[in-house]
């Protein structure tokens, strides 16, 4: 199905050539029926050039020798045939047949005319048949070359994406395996040892509670580790137990569990909630949980024994999650690992949903961590790519500028894609294709120009010969004329001398006889560097009274 623009263009072109055909046919004083027939034939034949380019071209060239109105249609058909005929041999054969057929028919129908008319006809056939075909052929080859570049470029981008995806998956699997082998082993040891310590009869009730909290924390860490490993391996976490299913859906509702675990560890934690609770997007809900978790972790790590306050404030436009602790009451334990990556990752997480994080000391010597999270997450570059099904790899080809030009038929003025980054075999093949196309077009253009020059040279030589015959005679013709012959007899025998080649033949000439009229002609003999031989015939009273040969200034 053609697009509307092409349909409109085809209609406009058909109407235009039909009007030109009608005007050309009316110019030769044709009758109304003949003009109507030519116009209708043009309107019918013009669209057929897309289906039968060679047949339509040959038929119209033959018919144009009889119907002059079809002549404006010939260049259009030739251009279209050059674009649509497949194969160099078929194209050359079609245009050679059209040219020779038109030339022969012109010679046959206009046989009484002069050779100059035949040369003009040959020149016109070159201009209106061969040259449009060469232009159309070049346009089609250029479009095919650009389309090939586009297809190969799109294929290369797809292959590059596949390679990047495979590299990304391999790297994720390696990280997942390392995490499982190292962290998993340590967490299992923690869980086993804490479980064994929990049943020790020598522990007091408070110590047993602390050990139980440690065991539950190690088990929860194992669940989170399995979730992260599943995400790294195949991107889809699969809970293996009800506990893991519960851990996989953490949000604001899980903040109360975090507070309860901290309280069981012996820390004073207060949970405050203000405002009307509102539903949150999954990404925002998870970010709120992570803010509370990071705040509690930092408080336990850097301010052991300090009282902690966790606040959830539902504001009109955002949720504020705040964790604040007072100054430490006991010295922090040795060997606590703190690389500062928790707050950095938390800031990135909240930024992706359109929020922000503030962390800093308080006036009383404590520390405060607060996250401001909008109820509706703001799309950023990463979520947009995820929503489109793209992956954030080190080769983000989805944003590549070359992907903005889809492969397919292109028109004139389309993007020119270079060969940078293409395989060597592809570059070589494209160069060979471009060289062959350029050679074919170049040879065709050179052939057409050569024919034009030959035709123009022939017309020029013929024109000069015609002009020379009007103003030049040889010595034999001069000697054959006798003084005393009648003027009419002599003038019928000699040319009239009316030619631009004659110029001014009076410089240095002897004076003419009184009362006479003279005819001065050029001689075929070769003169000197600055002189030219001429013959002069003078008439008076209807007779030739003098003939003279002399040299004039060239």
UniProtKB/TrEMBL annotation:
Q: Which GO terms describe its cellular component?
A: membrane
The main enzyme category here is transferase
Q: Which reaction does it catalyse?
A: ATP + protein L-histidine = ADP + protein N-phospho-L-histidine
Report the Gene3D superfamilies cross-referenced here: 1.20.5.1930, Histidine kinase-like ATPase, C-terminal domain
Q: This protein's superkingdom?
A: Bacteria
Question: What are the UniProt keywords, alphabetically?
Answer: ATP-binding, Kinase, Membrane, Nucleotide-binding, Phosphoprotein, Transferase, Transmembrane, Transmembrane helix, Two-component regulatory system
All copies of domain Signal transduction histidine kinase subgroup 3 dimerisation and phosphoacceptor, residue ranges: 171-235
Listed GO MF terms: ATP binding; phosphorelay sensor kinase activity; protein dimerization activity
One of its Pfam families is: HisKA_3
Residues crossing the lipid bilayer are 51-73, 85-109, 115-135, 438-465
Q: Which InterPro entries match?
A: HATPase_C_sf, Sensor_HK_TwoCompSys, Sig_transdc_His_kin_sub3_dim/P
List its EC numbers. Answer: 2.7.13.3
Kindly provide the name given to this protein in its UniProt entry. Answer: histidine kinase
Q: Lineage from the top down?
A: Bacteria, Bacillati, Actinomycetota, Actinomycetes, Kitasatosporales
């Amino acid at each position: 199905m053609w697009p509307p623009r092409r349909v409109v263009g085809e209609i406009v072109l058909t109407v235009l050539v039909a009007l030109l055909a009608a005007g050309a046919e009316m110019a030769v004083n044709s009758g109304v029926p003949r003009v109507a027939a030519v116009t209708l034939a043009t309107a019918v034949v013009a669209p057929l050039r897309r289906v039968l380019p060679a047949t339509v071209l040959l038929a119209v060239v033959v018919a144009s020798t009889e119907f002059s109105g079809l002549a404006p249609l010939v260049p259009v058909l030739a251009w279209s045939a050059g674009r649509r005929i497949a194969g160099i041999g078929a194209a050359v054969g079609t245009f050679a047949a059209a040219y020779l057929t038109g030339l022969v028919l012109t010679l046959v129908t206009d046989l009484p005319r002069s050779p100059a008319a035949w040369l003009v006809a040959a020149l016109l056939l070159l201009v209106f048949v061969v040259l449009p075909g060469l232009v159309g052929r070049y346009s089609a080859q250029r479009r095919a070359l650009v389309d090939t570049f586009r297809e190969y470029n799109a294929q290369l981008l797809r292959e590059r994406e596949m390679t990047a995806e495979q590299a990304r998956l391999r790297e994720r699997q390696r990280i997942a395996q390392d995490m499982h082998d190292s962290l998993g082993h340590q967490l299992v040891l923690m869980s086993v040892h804490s479980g064994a310590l929990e049943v020790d009869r020598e522990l007091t009730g408070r110590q047993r509670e602390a050990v139980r909290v440690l065991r539950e924390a190690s088990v929860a860490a194992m669940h989170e580790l399995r979730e992260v490993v599943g995400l790294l391996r195949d991107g889809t976490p699969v809970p293996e137990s009800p506990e893991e299913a519960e851990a996989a859906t953490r949000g604001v509702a899980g903040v109360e569990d975090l507070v309860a675990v901290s309280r069981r560890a012996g820390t004073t934690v207060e949970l405050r909630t203000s405002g009307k609770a509102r539903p949150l997007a999954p990404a925002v809900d998870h970010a709120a949980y992570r803010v509370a978790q990071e705040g509690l972790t930092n408080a336990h790590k850097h301010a052991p024994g300090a009282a902690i306050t966790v606040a959830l404030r539902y504001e009109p436009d955002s949720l504020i999650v705040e964790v604040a602790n007072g100054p430490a009451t006991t010295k922090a334990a040795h060997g606590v690992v703190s690389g500062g990556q928790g707050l950095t990752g938390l800031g990135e997480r909240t930024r992706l949903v359109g929020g922000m994080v503030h962390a800093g000391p308080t006036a009383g010597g404590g520390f405060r961590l607060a996250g401001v999270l909008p109820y509706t997450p703001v799309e950023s570059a990463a979520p947009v790519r995820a929503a489109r099904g793209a992956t954030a790899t080190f080769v983000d080809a989805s944003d590549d500028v070359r992907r903005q030009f889809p492969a397919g038929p292109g028109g004139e003025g389309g993007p020119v894609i270079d060969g940078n980054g293409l395989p060597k075999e592809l570059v070589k093949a494209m160069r060979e294709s471009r060289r062959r196309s350029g050679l074919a077009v170049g040879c065709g253009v050179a052939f057409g120009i050569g024919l034009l020059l030959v035709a123009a040279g022939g017309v020029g030589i013929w024109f000069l010969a015609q002009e020379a015959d009007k103003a030049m005679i040889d010595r034999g013709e001069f000697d054959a004329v006798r003084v005393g012959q009648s003027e009419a007899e002599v003038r019928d025998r000699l040319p009239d001398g009316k030619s631009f080649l004659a110029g001014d033949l009076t410089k240095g000439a002897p004076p003419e006889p009184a009362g006479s009229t003279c005819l001065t002609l050029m001689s075929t003999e070769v003169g000197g560097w600055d002189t030219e031989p001429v013959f002069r015939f003078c008439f008076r009273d209807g007779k030739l009274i003098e003939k003279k040969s002399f040299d004039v200034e060239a």
